[in-house]
Amino acid sequence: MNRRHFITATPVLLTLPALHPRQRRKTEHRVVLIGTGWYGKMDLFRLLQVAEVEVVGLCDVDSQQLDAAYEWLRERHPEQQPRRYADYREMLATEKPDIALIETPDHWHEKMALDCLAAGCHLYLQKPISRTEKEAKRILKAARKSDRTVQVALQRRSTPHLLEMKEQYLDSGKIGTIHHVEMSCYYHMRDRAVREIQEVPAHFNYVAWTGPAKRLPFRGIPHRRWRAFQEYGNGIVGDMCVHYFDCVRWLLGLGWPERISSTGGIYVDTEADANTTDTQTAIFEYPEHRLNVHWTHRAWGAAPDPDWPWSFTLYGEKGTLRASTLGYEWRPGKGREEDETVYVGATFEREAFPEDVDEKDIELHVAPAVRAHFVDFLEAIKTGRKPVADIEEAYISTVCCIRANELVG
Fold first, then answer.
1. Per-residue pLDDT tens for 29-52?
2. Residue 326 located in a structural domain
3. What are the residues facing 181 on neighbouring strands?
4. pLDDT classification of 1: cutoffs 50, 70, 90
5. Are 113 and 129 within 8 A, CB to CB?
6. With b meaning 16 or more CB within 10 Å and e meaning fewer, what string describes 190-216?
7. Which of 22, 182, 214, 295 is 20 to 30 A from 250, alpha carbon to alpha carbon?
8. What is the dihedral of CA 315, 321, 324, 328, to 10 degrees?
9. Judging by beta carbons within 10 Å of its beta carbon (0-12, 13-18, 19+), is residue 117 exposed, middle or buried?
10. Using 50, 70 and 90 to split pLDDT, how confident is the model at 26?
């Protein structure tokens, strides 16, 4: 039996000559945050850990969420004194920022991205970049027409242990040629509730939240469950598959697949209000590489391996790599018993950033990747080069996932 080694990846920021983990870049960037919910706050705080920027505006259509984000920001960074807005267009016109973080549901991405680019902002845009393919195409066109940098929050490309895995096993050729990839998610993350229609609370502007999308009957505050509705998002494929599909494309140097197929539906949670799939499989075919990339999600039942509920596996001629946001595992192929099975855990950076430990709802294992992603974003702005998760790469990954969903209907 092969021995199994457990090691930890080197923090990405330590490998970047321009920045030590506790050294913040001095900039004159004026930053606004559109969407002050869970990930909006988390991303803004990661940016503030790596750069000295001025946060000039916070915007949300939920005044309670907006006020909570403002108080939290002032508590952690009392030097920041942003104004609060209910309308992002007023904020852009008043504050004239040069960086905008768009952290809203998918259905708002196109309109906000176009307006921010027109206002001269560099963009940090949440994934997927849009709800529909047409919207994605318009964002890409506007981004390329402008001279602004657009980094998309596909931070697997900046994840320390995945960067190490790429160098050690893929770039070196140790894994050999890869002819099959499996990606999967077995989290019970799809909203299962059946809710009654109710009055909209005074602190939440549901008309503004719905914006360009179809307005469904109001059944409670939609935060952190809107992805379960096709009117506002792209379901589990647009949330979880897009991360790993983009990561696999980056790792293997893949572009557009030649064919996409997909099957699935609502097989178990049929009574829920949600209308996105609870079970789905998609195949992205690359015949030129003699390679298929498979996706499966099932928002019910047990994961085949409880240690890897959201992961991807690369099957190479000389071995197998299984990876997730929490680490990766290398298993040598048959006849290579002299090699060892190796497990590399995620980087946490608790010592360099102790404030992470007490942050509510933070994904500690993801924070280093987000910090590195912002460092790359700022460097791209400074130098004029493309960021690691440039809008064109994100366009490919997003559109492929949207097409997979459309095949299911």
1. 999 999 999 999 999 999 999 999
2. no
3. 293, 314
4. very low
5. yes
6. bbbeeeeeeeeeeebbbeebbbebeeb
7. 22
8. 180
9. buried
10. confident
User: CA–CA separation, 355 vs 22, rounded Å?
Assistant: 12
User: Average model confidence (pLDDT) for the chain?
Assistant: 94
β-bridge partners, 296: 184, 281
Burial class (CB in 10 A: 0-12, 13-18, 19+), 19: buried
* 370 assigned to some structural domain: no
Q: What is the per-residue pLDDT for 216?
A: 97
For every residue of 298-364, DSSP letters joined together read ESSS--SSTT-SEEEEEEESSEEEEEETTEEEEEEPTT-TTS-EEEEEPP--TTT-GGGGGSTT--T
Range of the domain at 118: 17-155
Phi-psi region at 265: left, alpha or beta (left = phi > 0; alpha = psi -120 to 50): left
- Position 353 in a domain: no
Q: Is residue 65 part of a domain?
A: yes
Residue 116 predicted with pLDDT over 50: yes
What tokens were used for 242?
């897009």
User: Can you give the pLDDT at residue 6?
Assistant: 57
- CATH number of the domain that residue 92 is part of: 3.40.50.720
Query: 315, 302 in Cβ contact below 8 A?
Result: no
Pairing of strands 4-8, 341-345: parallel
- The enclosing H or E element of 385 equals none
- For β-strands 99-102 and 25-34, DSSP reports them as parallel
- Decide if 67 contacts 83 (C-beta within 8 A): no
Report the C-alpha dihedral over residues 47, 48, 49, 52, rounded to 10 degrees. 110
Report angle CA 19, 39, 63 to the nearest 5 degrees: 125
Q: How far apart are the first and last CA of the chain?
A: 47
Helices (H), strands (E): how many in the chain?
12, 15
pLDDT tens track for 381-391: 999 999 999 99
Instruction: State the total domains in the chain.
Output: 1
H-type alpha helices, 62-178: 63-76, 88-95, 109-118, 133-145, 160-165
